[in-house]
Amino acid sequence: MEQDTIAAISTAIANGGIGMIRISGKDAVSVADRVLRLHGGKTLSDMKSHTIHYGHVYDEDEIIDEVMVTLMRGPKSYTREDVIEINCHGGVYVLKKILELVISRGARLAEPGEFTKRAFLNGRIDLSQAESVMEMIQAKNEYALRSSVRQLSGRLSDEIRNIRSELLHETAYIESALDDPEHISLDGYTVPFKEKLEHIRERLQHLLSTSENGRILKEGISTVIVGKPNAGKSSLLNTLLNEERAIVTNIAGTTRDVLEEQLNLNGILLRVTDTAGIRETKNPVEQIGVEKARESMKDADLILYVVDTSTELDENDMEIMKLLDQTPALILLNKSDLAPKVTAQEMEHQLHAFCGSETSFRMISVSAKEGSGMDELEAAVREMFLSCEVKGEDEMYVTNVRHKAALSDALSSVLLVLKSMEDGMPEDVYTIDLMNAYRSLGLILGEEVEEDLVNEIFQSFCMGK
Ligand code: GDP
Asked: Is 229 in the pocket of ligand 1 (CB under 6 A)?
């Protein structure tokens, strides 16, 4: 258990109605008492745990702010240590002033994520739960939020613990039998053991299979809009952005000169990249730049191919269709409000010619100008990316790459045991791989994790959390 007392501003460093300074550690109460004068003349040290008090923060005799102070004595607190939360008026200057005061009276400035790190080190939560706190803060949509709440409540950890305890049980049984063959026999053991192992394999595979949805939920669907000049790409983007449900942010690319728009389609995030090219429609011939399209289509999760149905297909369309076979694509038959020169049948015929008749594409008739077809577009995206699994309210998603890697290692070890059984290897070989699987899963919970990794994980947290 770390001994010193830490403090930080836990609300955003911006002017707001209320701001909060959190103090945690063995001296939290006395440090707070040094800067506070409570109504009625008492001190926090006299008060019961889990109570809230009205008073003022003072610097010597100068009044700094009027505050409400919450007292939570360990171990029933976020960090399991004594925790004080000073709720003050939420101005940046006031917050900083109170924090400085608290630090001058015996606390130290907390590192990013240090409160949560203490909660982990003091055994209140495991590492995957700690990570879910961060994911919750960063959640960009309701699914990501729900998934992180479930992870925080220990849903993933429980499943991992169950699998681990089964692995440990089997290992212990085999080892005791090998140590003491007179009393414990492995006769007839193989069949039930294999069944149990198959079941563990299925559960690991299931968790891993949720990670793709998990990634989509967390990071959004990287989307590229393609189509010949004047097909209606920027109109489509604008229509989607103007939808009431869309939450819009502009992110100027940091690494490349990519402009990204984020669309929140009823809880699913579409990250539309390379919109710079779409927006600058003044140079239509260069705008499509097949090379450029190829480049951005390569890394996309989804392609929205906008077809201008009011004009004949041209060589630009042919070039695009050639590129369509790799990434999931939706064909948007745009300008449905005008007389059609291209029909769905003709598109299908052409697409088959370019991508083979076994590839099927979903086509949606839209009018970017009039905004029709947008509900169908949204439904199609949902169906393509979230399959049936999001419907299950209880579904757990693995959203963290670190967890995914550990699950994958554990699965490989389990598969090795199954292989050893098939090859008729002796039982003592199984236990090595069983224990490897056990250890890999332990990493998710934060057992036997290197200190450096722990530090790295918590450093990505925000201040005050
Ligand atoms: P881009 O070059 O693919 O980005 O195409 P724009 O979005 O700039 O659209 C080109 C032209 O087509 C503009 O004059 C739009 O108003 C028009 N347009 C786009 N979508 C539709 C549509 O659904 N119906 C009609 N009638 N016109 C459209």
From this structure: yes
- Residues pairing with 51 in the sheet: 71
pLDDT in tens, 29-64: 999 999 999 999 999 999 999 999 999 999 999 999
Residue nearest to atom 22 of ligand 1 (CA): 335
Place of tokens 């057992």: 447
β-partners of residue 36 are 57
What's residue 244's pLDDT?
37
Is pLDDT larger for residue 250 or for residue 262?
262
Tokens 């000049």 map to which residue? 229
Residue 316, ligand 1, Cβ within 6 A:
no
By C-alpha distance, which of 22, 3, 2, 1 is closest to 11?
A: 22
The answer to pTM > 0.70 is no
pLDDT of residue 264: 77
- Tokens 């709720």 locate to 87
Ligand 1 centroid to residue 306 C-alpha, Å: 10
CB 431 near ligand 1, within 6 Å: no
Q: Which comes out higher in pLDDT, residue 245 or 407?
A: 407
Q: Checking phi first, is residue 123 left (phi over 0); if not, alpha (psi -120 to 50) or beta?
A: left
* Residues 103, 109 contacting (CB under 8 angstroms): yes
- Predicted confidence (pLDDT) at residue 272 exceeds the cutoff of 90: no
Confidence label for 77 from pLDDT (cuts 50, 70 and 90): very high
Amino acid 250: pLDDT? 40
Dihedral pair phi/psi, residue 52, rounded to 5°: -125, 140
Whether 228 lines ligand 1, by a CB cut-off of 6 Å, is: no
Mean model confidence pLDDT for the chain: 85
Q: Which domains does the chain have, with CATH numbers?
A: 6-125 (3.30.1360.120), 130-210+397-446 (1.20.120.430), 219-385 (3.40.50.300)
Distance CA 269, CA 218 (A): 8
- Per-residue pLDDT of 159-198, as tens digits, reads 999 999 999 999 999 988 888 888 878 888 889 999 999 9
Q: C-alpha dihedral over 213, 214, 219, 224, to 10 degrees?
A: -10
Distances (CA, A) of 181 to 55, 176, 185: 71, 8, 6
- Residue length of the chain: 465
Two tokens, residue 37: 């004068």
CA distance to 55, 56, 365, per residue, from 39 (Å)? 5, 8, 68
Can you tell me the distance from the alpha carbon of 185 to that of 181, in angstroms, rounded to the nearest whole number? 6
Is 338 a pocket residue for ligand 1 (Cβ < 6 Å)?
yes
Residue of 226, 230, 306 to test ligand 1 pocket, by largest number of atoms within 8 Å of CB: 230
